Amino acid sequence: MKIPNMIYGTAWKKESTSNLVSEAIKQGFRAIDTACQPKHYREDLVGIGLLKAYERGIKREDLFLQTKFTPIDGQDKNNMPYLSSDEIEIQVEKSFETSKKNLNTNFIDSYILHSPIYDLNKFQKVWQKMEEFYNKNEVGHLGISNCYELNFLKFLYANSKVKPSFVQNRFYSQSGYDREIRIFCKENGIIYQSFWSLTANPHILDSDILKQISLKYNKSVELIFYRFLNHIDIIPLNGTTSINHMIEDLKISDFELSKEEIEAISNLTKR
Ligand SMILES: NC(=O)c1ccc[n+]([C@@H]2O[C@H](COP(=O)([O-])OP(=O)(O)OC[C@H]3O[C@@H](n4cnc5c(N)ncnc54)[C@H](OP(=O)(O)O)[C@@H]3O)[C@@H](O)[C@H]2O)c1
Questions:
Q1: Cβ < 6 Å from ligand 1: which residues?
Q2: Looking at residue 55, which CATH number applies to its domain?
């Protein structure tokens, strides 16, 4: 399916996850991001939210479902989808099986490695297992998250048979807004997904430039910034818990910023 221009994020929603996922789909979100990482995500309740949407007539093929394999360092050791004593390939297999069960599906549109694994032997075993899912047509795209070192991304790209389709990273000034990573992504057909897009950038949202553009289009500064991200080929994740913000943010495709406006906002990410 076509990759949507904004992805609904489900982290930290706890017991509200199913209602919020159902509501987000009702309002028009068609892409959902989660992870098999009970510490931060209730993937099982994402699945319940999806069932509610299916009851209203939404079909599985209308949705783009993205989940992640979280290596052991990112897990709560008392609540994780595999054993610490399992071989790494078994950990990936168990996590993937749990995700499919939680999400009531045999097909995951996008399967993301939650963070780089710097033991390259282990890393390759994990990626090869992910490639197996892709080759069995159980996964549509592979990706990597929290990858802030260009050399790691280059290693992954050079040493994989199934190349990553996505990099999902924090979009913030401390990483120089991943300028080099994003250039590499563009050159190699990888789509960059951003998180912390609003929360890490209050200085941009509060800038005179954003406020002027917001007045001109009669849209919130938040929506202007999301629109800007789409213009520079970034798909933002959005984990809003507010129905009003869902409705507002989904108007992202209703308007276009001018070249000069895109340039002016881009300059704010170069400081
Ligand atoms: N790969 C990773 O390691 C990783 C890490 C973090 C997050 N993520 C993913 O990214 C998703 C998004 O997380 P995030 O950290 O970017 O933050 P977020 O959950 O999207 O939070 C954004 C904040 O912006 C607010 N907001 C949204 N639309 C708004 C609007 N139109 N006007 C004003 N405020 C608005 C929300 O408040 P309201 O609730 O009041 O709208 C919320 O406080 C997560 O759910 C998760 O799926 C992935």
A1: 9-11, 33, 145-146, 168, 195-199, 220, 222-223, 237-242, 245, 248-249
A2: 3.20.20.100
Which stretches of the chain score pLDDT less than 50?
none
Query: What is the atom index within ligand 1 of the atom nearest the CA of 145?
Result: 1
| pTM of the predicted protein model | 0.98
Task: Give the total residue count for the chain.
Answer: 271
Which residue is closest in CA terms to ligand 1's atom 31? Answer: 245
Atom 41 of ligand 1, residue of closest alpha carbon = 240
Query: By residue range, what is the domain housing residue 139?
Result: 7-201+227-256
Which residue's CA is minimally distant from atom 27 of ligand 1?
240
Q: How close is the Cα of 122 to the center of ligand 1, in Å?
A: 31
Whether 189 contacts 195, CB under 8 Å: no
Determine the pLDDT at residue 270.
86
Residue 175 Cα to ligand 1 middle (Å): 19
At residue 191, φ and ψ (nearest 5 deg) are -95, 135
- pLDDT tens profile 89-132: 999 999 999 999 999 999 999 999 999 999 999 999 999 999 99
Helix segments in the chain, DSSP class H: 17-27, 43-55, 88-102, 120-135, 150-159, 179-187, 202-205, 208-217, 221-231, 243-249, 259-268
pLDDT digits (tens, 9 = 90+) for 247-266: 999 999 999 999 999 999 99
222 in a domain, yes or no?
no
Identify whether 36 is part of a domain.
Answer: yes
Which candidate, 63, 64, 76, places its Cα nearest to that of 36?
76
- What tokens does 41 get? 């995500």
Domains identified in the chain, total number: 1
Q: How many CB atoms lie within 10 A of CB 106?
A: 10
CA distance 149 to 161: 20
